Amino acid sequence: MSTVEAVIIAIVEGLTEFLPVSSTGHMVITSSIMGIEADPFTKLYEIVIQLGAILSVVFLYWKKFFDFKKLSFYIKLIIAVIPALIVGALLKKHIDRMLERPVIIALILLLGGIVLLFVDNWFKKPAIDKEENISNKNAFIIGCYQVLSVLFPGLSRSAATIIGGMQQKLTRKVAAEFSFFLAVPTMLAASAKSFLDVYKETPSVLSSGNMGTLLIGSVIAFIVALLSIKFFIGFLQKHGFKLFGYYRIIIGIVLLILFYTGVIKS
Predict the structure, then answer these.
(1) Residue 60 and residue 189: Cα distance in Å, rounded?
(2) What is the C-alpha to C-alpha distance for residues 73 and 236, in angstroms, rounded to an integer?
């Protein structure tokens, strides 16, 4: 992976991490289009820069994350992240195989887009308009929704958890914000696990040059994600999910055609 390719992938990550369009799917497809080999460093890079993007949440909501008097906030995040941690640890090989099949991700993008066309009509009577009113049970169920994005790369962690929040009667804004908060422990755990796996299997990948690339990519993803968060919250409140659904359907169909015709490798 060249520096230019790393920068492009980081920009794609920052733009898509908080949108319900699957940042992982977009990075895998982007790598496939550019002909980047799915080697251990590429896999590590695509996970770690997600953490870089996610840390923009800590920056924007620093008062929430560093208010240690409200332990209930941290407890809810711990409860919500547990299902994904368990499933991710048990099914890592399955997930890795799925990530090596861009055509499957394109199909999941398409099907997920169809779902998003109807989401706004499913949950019309929200009752929870503050994070403080989210119960531990609500948090756990939202965490179970997050598992779907672990099992089906391309589904979108953001979409799954926001829909889970809305199903639990959270407003769109509160559901989106809790999804952002939940992303922090989720990606911290995923990045730590990836570093450990790479260190055990191919420690040479963690060379100074590669670490520099990881740092550059993480910083770029962080900066771009800062802009993406504010846009998404405002857009979601006003317009809902339908436009993202159409986007996913179009991208999914185009990618499937490109794979079928051999323009890009599946």
Answers:
(1) 21
(2) 23
pTM for the whole structure: 0.83
Looking at this protein, which amino acid is placed at residue 144? C
Cα–Cα distance measured from residue 35 to residue 264, given in angstroms and rounded to the nearest whole number: 8
CA distance 54 to 71: 21
Largest CA distance in the chain: 58
% residues pLDDT > 90 (the chain): 26
Tokens of 248: 């996913």
State the average pLDDT over residues 78-97. Answer: 83
Distance CA 53, CA 62 (A): 15
Summarize pLDDT for 217-244 with one digit per residue, the tens: 999 999 999 888 878 877 877 788 888 8
Cα–Cα distance, 234 to 246 (Å, whole number): 19
Q: CA 141, CA 167: separation in Å to the nearest integer? A: 9
- The whole-number pLDDT of residue 219 equals 93
- Helix (H) or strand (E) segment spanning residue 244: helix 242-260
| C-beta of residue 221 within 8 angstroms of C-beta of residue 215 | no
Measured distance CA(45)–CA(215) in Å, rounded: 10
* DSSP per-residue string spanning 72-138: HHHHHHHHHHHHHHHHHHHTHHHHHHHHT-HHHHHHHHHHHHHHHHHHHHH-----B-SGGG--HHH
